[in-house]
């Protein structure tokens, strides 16, 4: 299935490359950094945009959790994700997309009310209420399908 493409959404931001942050306003408090209005966070060729992003800090001022809300979009090459809201727990390495969640890579996609990606386990769960989870997968030419025997 295509869940393997479940981006590195906010997870990629946790790595040591520099991050460029842009927003209409920034508030720093001892336990969080709040970006508000037309937020854009860039790291390498990965870009996250949202109406608001809050990065929660631990006692050593290291990021422990990030939340993005309002028109959340992630782009990295041909990988894209969108949702109404997203959360990333840096310690457990779990990414959650909420509300109109969609993850795409090329023509392939998965859509659900909620998509949770457990990065350490390389496992994802997509769930919806009142509608079905939708996926679309196009096998590339020359790609061999494994026999499960």
Automatic annotation (TrEMBL):
What organism does this protein naturally occur in? Hydrogenobacter thermophilus (strain DSM 6534 / IAM 12695 / TK-6)
Q: Which residues form the Organic solvent tolerance-like N-terminal domain?
A: 24-122
Has the keyword Repressor been applied to this entry?
Answer: no
GO MF, one annotated term: glycolipid transfer activity
User: Which Pfam family is an annotated match for this chain, by its short name?
Assistant: LptD_N
**InterPro entries, alphabetically?**
LPS_export_LptA (IPR052037), LptA (IPR014340), OstA-like_N (IPR005653)
The answer to whether the entry has keyword Flavoprotein is no
Biological process (GO) annotations held by this record are: lipopolysaccharide transport
Query: Any idea which UniProt keywords this protein has?
Result: Periplasm, Signal, Transport
Output this protein's name: Organic solvent tolerance-like N-terminal domain-containing protein
Which Gene3D superfamilies does the UniProt record give? Lipopolysaccharide (LPS) transport protein A like domain
- Which GO cellular component terms are attached? cell outer membrane; outer membrane-bounded periplasmic space
